Amino acid sequence: MSLEKLKTFVLAEQQNQENAHGKRAMSAFGMLENVDLMIHRYLTEPQAEKGAILLDVFGLMQGLFVAIDALYDLAIGLTSYKYHVNVNKNKVLKQLKFIRNDIVGHPTHRTYEHGGTGFSIIRQTPLNKDKIIYDTYIYQKGKESVTTQEVLFKPLVKAYIDEKAIILDDLYGYLTNKDGSTELSEMCFRLYEMLDLGVLDKVVEQFTLKYGLSKDSKHRFLWRADLLRTLINWHEDDDVLNGFILYMAKFQAAKLYDIALKSANQFGKDLYTKLPDVLVNFYRFIRHHERTAYPLLENIHDHDHPLHDADLQALLSLDPNQDAEKLIKFLLAQTDDQKAFLIGSTLREYRKKQ
Question: What is the pLDDT of residue 1?
């Protein structure tokens, strides 16, 4: 979808001087237009000289990085929420943050968890506007490790353009279809109580129709609905773990209820689910070792993160209580990205002592 179709809504929002949403949307809209121009020049203007290639590559990487922020800010400026944007579900764009930091942000000195430092070096060949390769040298506890990353720019640009089109479609559908009715939030409340797949299917269908979402939408409501579907179908041969899974299902259903309310500019009661004892005891373990353990929670929801397993092993080395050990090993045993995310994100809900 064309960015231009949203301009009327951006201009209308800008007239509202009661909050900053209008200027936020206008700033984001302008930046997205600028990045479109940058991408066009990158793809159509050939370069052969090394300095010109590097200038274009650095500009493109920074431009895409800023454009993703702009998509979030456009959504917030127009809807007050970022529900329409979930770039981390796009595996190509998810890597953009790391690649940009490696070669544009901090190539000569990166710091990592547990005191590690890293340095990235761009290879001189191949070096063109289609592809570069760089090596990152990481030094931690007296040991060197090397990772090599190949960056293909056309697939990266295509991933951004495709993702942007989906988000703009979803925003336009929301802005032209919102009606403020309570039917959907009432269905979500029923879903929270019943955790029934049939009710979930109806909720997803109604939300998609109500807000005109595209078939490829990564709207956070649909993403959480998919997480809930996994949880409803997930059963273990351990009553304690099943109780933990039930808690996670209730948590996701409550999030759906909250999104449905806010999307329709409604207010409702908070849906609170009591924490299972196994999770309470995990949080007690973290509190007891907070200075060491809290930083180790940072990446445990991301199964693809290079420190995912190492951080969990580091938590195990702190001699956790029986329940905490059960949840850490439960997460370590997961091979499914979605299940690992669900467990890890729940453990990351721990709130640091102020």
Answer: 59
Contact 199, 190 (CB under 8 A): yes
Rounded-to-integer distance, Cα 185 and Cα 257, Å: 6
Which pair of tokens denotes residue 118?
Answer: 């890293």
In this structure, are residues 132 and 126 in contact, taking their beta carbons and an 8 Å threshold? yes
Q: Which residues have a Cβ under 8 Å from the Cβ of 249 and sit 6 or more positions away?
A: 195, 228, 231, 232
pTM of the model: 0.85
Can you tell me the distance from the alpha carbon of 253 to that of 227, in angstroms, rounded to the nearest whole number? 9
What is the DSSP secondary structure assignment for residue 319, as one 8-state letter?
-
What are 349's two structure tokens?
Answer: 């809900």
Q: Give just the sign of the alpha carbon dihedral 218, 222, 226, 227.
A: positive
Q: Which residues pair with 122 in a beta bridge?
A: 134
Looking at the predicted structure, is the pLDDT value of residue 354 above 80?
no
CA–CA distance, 156 with 77 (Å, rounded to integer) = 26
- What pLDDT score was predicted for residue 15? 77
* Mean of pLDDT values over 265-284: 92
